From TrEMBL:
This is 8-amino-3,8-dideoxy-alpha-D-manno-octulosonate transaminase. Keywords: Pyridoxal phosphate. The active site is at residue 186. The modification N6-(pyridoxal phosphate)lysine is found at residue 186. GO terms for biological process: polysaccharide biosynthetic process. Belongs to the DegT/DnrJ/EryC1 family. One of its GO terms (molecular function) is pyridoxal phosphate binding.
Length: 396
């Protein structure tokens, strides 16, 4: 990761196809676009790559989650279970439909702890939203069993895990719906973009309309479209979709590079007895965008990340990070919004002003992740593996 590292002639060609016609919008203008439909083509490519019947592109991963939640009928008073370790888009999308985020601990998979999910279920729970962080999967069998038992919706945030799978099925295609991001630093990029995937045709039709002002897209004349319900403009442009089309054709190459490189780095680090690794419910399905590991103590993990950075390696110590872990989401904790929450939601948010998450803390404060890049030569990979081992050993 990320796909932008291998940007080139293929992306330029696809973008040029669009520039030749000048039709930058994904809908309409059937004549002048001369058969160029990049967004439609990318939707088909995603469906066929992930083996899922329906894909709706959107303007971002955040709007993909929002679109999925709205299409699933989630709104005011509904609780959505989400992990403490994720990206801020998780709660942003939940707030955007007026629903209530319920934060739940993660385990050593760095994703939702199924037992903690079960404990958080209330009569208002509608959705369980696992986030497949850093390229790999949550324990989907356990989460799906809980959802089935309690009649809940499983919505997969697979924004960081395009191309990863669980027991042979693509992440994002196992729940009622899945969301992907193609922002600039994701596995494949459109510059900005996202997608909702689903097996449910009715849900797809709702996503299609919701992400384009409620247009039903049934007629040949956009101006004469009916609007069965209200929507927003979460459309992707043809230029963005064109970039994604070139990128998805390279996905298998990206995954092969990442898996090979990660194995070398992980094997090297395995020689250190104090190191344990992120648990992967299906190691074969890992997209291998990151190598995540634990050290015995918080201080060692923080020091290891610093030593790695000093040695020129990228290192994420999520416990101190402002975007990915509840500890530093001060704006979330304080409900710092520009407008007012509905009264019920405001009340539900009060608990986060003081709520602590010691179980998640004890996982995340010992965790270090290093990204696996696409552009490294074999020699660089060996050098980096050596530096990684040296940096980690230096703090033990
Ligand atoms: C990137 C990301 C998103 C949001 O995607 P954008 O395209 O940046 O809006 C949502 N969830 C997770 C876990 C992400 O990493």
């Amino acid at each position: 990761m990320p796909g932008f590292e291998l940007f080139g002639a293929e992306e330029r060609k696809e973008v040029n196809d669009v520039l030749e016609t000048g039709i930058l919008m994904r809908y309409g203008f059937d004549g002048p676009r001369k058969g160029i439909w990049k967004a439609k083509e990318l939707e088909q490519a995603i469906s066929s790559k992930l083996n899922v019947p329906y894909t709706q592109l959107t303007s971002s991963g955040t709007t993909a989650l929002t679109t999925a939640l709205a299409a699933l009928g989630v709104g005011a008073g509904d609780e959505v279970i989400m992990p403490t370790f994720t990206f801020v888009a998780s709660f942003e999308s939940i707030f955007s439909v007026g629903a209530t985020p319920v934060l739940v601990d993660v385990d050593d998979t760095l994703t939702l702890d199924p037992r903690a999910v079960e404990a958080a279920i209330t009569p208002r729970t509608r959705v369980v939203m696992p986030v497949h962080m850093c390229g790999a999967m949550a324990d989907l069998d356990a989460l799906k069993a809980i959802c089935d038992q309690h009649n809940l919706i499983l919505l997969e945030d697979a924004c960081q895990s395009f191309g990863a799978s669980y027991k042979g099925r693509a992440l994002g295609t196992i729940g009622h719906a899945g969301a992907f991001s193609f922002d600039f630093v994701k596995t494949i990029t459109c510059a900005e973009g996202g997608a909702v995937v689903t097996h449910d045709k009715d849900l797809y039709i709702k996503c299609d309309a919701y992400s384009d002002h409620g247009h039903d897209h049934l007629g040949a004349d956009r101006g004469a479209d009916q609007h069965p319900f209200m929507g927003y403009n979460f459309r992707i442009s043809e230029l963005h979709a064109a970039v994604g089309l070139a990128q998805i054709r390279k996905l298998d190459t990206f995954l092969a590079i990442q898996r090979k490189t990660k194995k070398i780095m992980k094997d090297a680090l395995s020689a250190i007895p104090e190191v344990s690794f992120r648990r992967l419910p299906d190691p074969d399905g890992d997209s291998a965008t990151f190598l995540g590991f634990f050290l015995p103590e918080e201080g060692q993990a923080r020091a290891a990340a610093a030593a790695m950075k000093a040695a020129g390696l990228a290192a994420f110590y999520w416990y101190d990070n402002n975007w990915h872990y509840i500890r530093n989401w001060e704006h979330f904790r304080q409900s710092a919004t520009l407008n007012h929450f509905a009264p019920g939601l405001q009340q539900a948010m009060e608990l986060y002003r003081i709520r602590q998450f010691p179980v998640s803390d004890a996982i995340i404060n010992r965790c270090v992740c290093t990204p696996i890049n696409l552009g490294w030569s074999e020699q660089e990979v060996q050098e980096k593996a050596g530096k990684l081992v040296k940096a980690v050993k230096s703090v033990l």
